[in-house]
Amino acid sequence: MKKIKQLVVFCCAAMLCTPSAFGWGKKGHTMVVQIAYGLLDSATKNTIHELIDHMSAEQAGSWMDEVRSDRRYDYMKPWHYVNVEKGETYQTGSTPNVLNQIDSAISRLEHRDRMSHEEVKKNILVLFHLIGDMHQPLHVGYGTDKGGNSVQVKYLNKETNLHWVWDSEIIESEHITLNDCLKRYNDLPKPMIERLQIIAPEKWMNQPRSLLSAVYNFQDATIDQEYADRNKTVIEDEIAIAGIRLAAVLNHLFKA
Q1: Neighbour order of strands in the sheet with 152-155
Q2: Opening angle at CA 180, ends 178 and 186, nearest 5
Q3: 159 - beta bridge partners?
Q4: What b/e sequence results for 23-45 when a residue is b if at least 16 CB atoms lie within 10 Å of its CB, and e otherwise?
Q5: Residue 90 belongs to what H/E stretch?
Q6: Total-model pTM
Q7: What DSSP designation does 40 have?
Q8: Structural domains of the chain sorted by starting position, each given as residue range(s) with its CATH number in brackets
Q9: pLDDT in tens, 185-197
């Protein structure tokens, strides 16, 4: 119980200086960053805050989504996901995707003394966002349906698509909060947390991909309340796990 109390104290303080969140993009990514910050010591947090110019958790977690409308960052659009078809395994290649860009950002920051302040900041923000992205199962899903974007569904009588249900709709309709995700973290046994802290992005992908059968477990293009109730805890788990893994990377890179 002690660890969740410590996290709640820090994360609640972070929320007081964070602007209102809008939708899954900001809300989900903000919670990932807040959980990660709660697992860092104060010196490491201060170092990171300096390097990202004291951006809020919301601003830092959502920066990659915010710049999507800026043509200068078009090259980043494929970084948010990786497509691996059903029954296939990931093949390492040169095509940019969420896995190799996490790896690249870590490698660059390991040699940040050779980089400008702006480049260091950008690579930290890339890690904040992409580690969150890869824990949404449809960001490591199937290219044939564009990660669920082309799967039209009705969710609680609203026409939408499967990807958006997971990005936003369940978070909002089920009122998922930071405290909910912290409780899921607190339920994890210590040996599991230690395994989750091992930095291996390509292996990380296997865990959210293992959830895809549950993601597609609905009928007649209709997602009902039972589906939402069932997957609420899945989303809470994924946000908590993403926060643990982001913290592990930040500790590796910045802890003195």
Answers
A1: 158-161, 152-155, 222-223
A2: 100
A3: 154
A4: ebbbbbbbbbbbbbbbbbeeebb
A5: none
A6: 0.89
A7: S
A8: 2-254 (1.10.575.10)
A9: 999 999 999 999 9
